[in-house]
Design goal:
Blueprint: H1 2-32, E1 43-46, E2 53-56, H2 68-74, H3 78-86, H4 90-99, E3 105-109, H5 119-128, E4 130-132, E5 142-147, E6 165-171, E7 174-178, E8 184-194, E9 197-202, H6 212-218, H7 222-230, H8 234-239, E10 243-248, H9 250-255, H10 264-272, E11 275-276, E12 290-292, E13 298-303, E14 310-312, E15 315-324, E16 327-332, H11 369-419
Parallel strand pairs: 3-9, 10-16
Antiparallel strand pairs: 1-2, 3-4, 5-6, 6-7, 7-8, 8-9, 10-11, 12-13, 13-14, 14-15, 15-16
Length: about 425
């Protein structure tokens, strides 16, 4: 019996030892390991009206003597701070060094919903949201374009290896950030002064501009895309370093003669007029300037002095500055056909728009005197033949009348002779 009790006592002591060991081990690990994240301290306050305690977060305070990287923590952007602080990947480590260095930068810090992106994507997003130089909000007005530090060849295809643009648009003293691709971010905290630049906090993630195919599909520019596709211009558009595309909206294709009923030569010439071989944002257009297009022609720009409306090649820009990997897209309200002359030809398509659509032959010369002379010659010959016919007819009538008159004179003489 005593042995049984002794066994029970030993078992209880063993269990107490195990429980104590389990409780102590986490404390030992906490003291000996490096924390993986930093959580901002919370302040516990006790109200006088009740005995309950409430936990509040202190107001974030930035420090001008701290770097952009340090102020991420000061402004409670903890997810972004920890992402840069604890990630062993070279890309993000380089960014941490950059945000903690001496180079003047402006970071538009996105919110904490970045967990769905991999390391490479995060690096590209942050680099695209980082602008060279220190931008104060009072220097921003209207629509402006800024060079970012994003230069990845997978995402940027601009002349001289230049970095990608990002656009700010200040309206009613509110700053918006976007690429023209349907997603924009609003600045919710501005002008956080740092020792190496400026920090802004925005309310959305702004992704780098996509390529031509992605943007055209995203905006549902199906008619223009089909026009570029049937003329085999898409490979040229995608491979050109620095380009401006004038995209006629779907309504422009529906309102006029059916572009797709014309012959391939005309389609190519007209489509090429919609491609300018340099990057021109809407703020860079100058009135009365002519810009060279892919086919060697030019399109003239007119800017209204009343409302700033931009007309190019006779078409009005109705939506501007949709950024793409290698340039920019402006949306226009009609198809540009300047410098492209047509003559009626046998249609190459059975489809018609209104009774019959001519199939044009394309020339780039304004001299049409040759065709005009041919037409005049034909008209002259026709008139000559007509006049000659009238003269012959009148002569025949007179001849008949003369013959009848002569015959009527001879009839009485014959009668007298018979009576004799």
């Amino acid at each position: 019996m005593k042995s049984l009790n002794l066994l029970r006592i030993n078992s209880n002591l063993y269990m107490i030892f195990l429980i104590s060991l389990i409780n102590v081990l986490p404390l030992i690990n906490a003291q000996t390991s490096t924390p993986l994240s930093i959580t901002p301290p919370a302040i516990t306050t006790t109200t006088t009206s009740s005995s309950t305690s409430t936990t509040t977060t202190p107001t974030p305070t930035s420090y001008p003597t701290d770097s952009i990287y340090q102020n991420l923590f000061n402004m409670r952007l903890i997810y972004l701070y920890n992402l840069l602080n604890n990630n062993p990947d070279t890309e993000l480590e380089n960014l941490r060094t950059l945000y903690n260095g001496r180079l003047n930068l402006t970071l538009f810090a996105p919110p904490d919903n970045l967990s769905s992106y991999n390391v490479t994507q995060l690096d590209n997003i942050l680099r695209y949201n980082t602008v060279n130089g220190s931008l104060a909000s009072n220097t921003l007005s209207g629509k402006q374009f800024h060079r970012t530090i994003l230069t990845s060849s997978d995402l940027v295809q601009l002349p001289k290896g230049e970095s990608q643009y990002i656009m700010t648009n200040k309206t009613d003293n509110i700053i918006y950030l976007n690429t023209g691709n349907k997603i924009e971010a609003k600045v919710i905290t501005a002008d956080i002064v740092c020792s190496n630049g400026m920090l802004y906090i925005i309310d959305n993630v702004i992704l780098p501009p996509g390529d031509f195919n992605f943007v055209m599909n995203n905006h549902n520019f199906t008619s223009s895309y089909n026009a570029f596709n049937i003329t085999n211009l898409i490979p040229t558009i995608e491979s050109t370093v620095g380009i401006t595309i004038l995209v006629a909206n779907n309504a422009a294709f529906e309102s006029g003669p059916n572009f797709f009923d014309y012959n391939s030569s005309y389609q190519l010439s007209v489509s090429s007029l919609h491609i300018i071989t340099q990057v021109i944002h809407s703020t860079e257009f100058k009135t009365l300037n002519n810009y060279e297009t892919l086919n060697g022609g030019t399109v003239e720009v007119l800017i209204s002095s009343i409302n700033g409306e931009i007309t190019i090649g006779g078409a009005k820009i109705i939506s501007s500055d949709i950024l793409i990997k290698n340039g920019v897209i402006h949306v226009i309200d009609q198809i540009i056909t300047s410098n492209v002359t047509t003559t009626t030809n046998t249609p190459t398509s059975k489809a018609t728009v209104s009774s019959a659509t001519p199939t044009p032959e394309v020339t780039f010369s304004n001299d049409t005197s040759g065709s005009s002379l041919d037409k005049k010659s034909k008209i002259g010959i026709g008139l000559g033949v007509g006049c000659f016919g009238i003269v012959v007819l009148l002569f025949s009538i007179l001849l008949i009348k003369w013959y009848r008159a002569k015959r009527s004179k001879n009839k009485p003489t014959a009668a007298v002779a018979m009576e004799a």
